[in-house]
Amino acid sequence: MNRLTVFLIAFILLASQASAQVRDSAAPEAATAFTFKAEPPVTAEKYMVVTAHPLATRTARNVLREGGSAADAAIAAQMVLGLVEPQSSGLGGGAFALYWDAGTKTLTSIDGRETAPAAATPERFLDDTGKPRPWPEMVPGGLSVGTPGAVALLDMLHRQHGRLAWQRLIAPAIDLSINGFGVSQRLSALLAGMGPQAFSPAARTYFFNAAGEARPLGYVLKNPAYAVTLRAIGDEGAHGFYRGAVAARNRGKPYRAPGRAR
């Protein structure tokens, strides 16, 4: 097995307004066409990559074949997952990373979960009587928003355990954003189940056609805006996401990039 083994778990996209409108509790994602089928255990002599999408798995495998570390492979895979399975994970969420060094027999962890705003209080989600307000009422809008931690985690993971260049790891996701990827059955089914009314105008245009129909299986979906964000992260690291070009663009202020050491 690869000497440096990384398991990335719990990449959680921040709960969206759309998801709040289609369920009345913090339930897992709806089921689509998954059918369990018992299969023999799979083993590998050198390395193994498992993700929720074949494009992400293929990207991580290619990184390993180029001599990248398991950390590199995980970073590249997550950048792709943020594009091809936006219903489940992305740059706007949080994560944990567990890192096992087989040489030193050491397990370390990185906590990249979202952090609450400085002004948040324990009473924010309580009604006038002190009882918790319903989950669907609290998720829409800005009250439940936290600062995403996934990008900071990936940046730290690379600085500590990466081998390949940071920009090399982000390049596959940029390429897929520009040239497009085929919509999966799961993404299409979840969109159809939620309906266009559950999305903001920009997201509605991206995920649905003019008639309000969800992008079908195999539809080539492109996201050049995601590529712009990824380029900023590639050029400036996590700084480009939290305090750099992306954040400045959202505030409408100019920004001068400091560059990235790696």
What is this structure, in a nutshell?
Helix content is 40%, strand content 11%. The chain has 262 residues and is of the alpha+beta class.
Walk me through the structure.
By secondary structure, the protein is of the alpha+beta class. It has a domain at 4-170. It is 40% helix and 11% strand. It contains eleven helices and five strands. The chain has helices at 17-22, 54-65, 70-84, 135-138, 150-161, 166-179, 185-194, 201-207, 224-236, 239-242, 245-251; strands at 4-12, 94-101, 106-112, 181-182, 220-221. The strands form two sheets. The protein has a three-stranded antiparallel beta sheet with strand order 1-2-3, with helices on one face. Helix 2 (54-65) packs antiparallel against helix 3, helix 3 (70-84) runs antiparallel to helix 5 (150-161) and helix 6 runs antiparallel to helix 9 (224-236).
* Beta-strand content bin: 5-15%
Q: How would you sum up the global shape? A: globular
Distance between the termini: 26 Å
| Structural class by sheet pairing and helices | alpha+beta
Q: Report the total helices.
A: 11
Mean pLDDT: 84
State the major sheet. Answer: 3 strands, antiparallel
Strand order of the largest sheet: 1-2-3
Query: Radius of gyration from the CA trace?
Result: 19 Å
Give the ordered list of helices and strands.
EHHHEEHHHEHHEHHH
- Give start-end ranges of low-pLDDT stretches: 1-25, 254-259
How many strands appear in the DSSP assignment?
5
Give the % helix: 25-40%
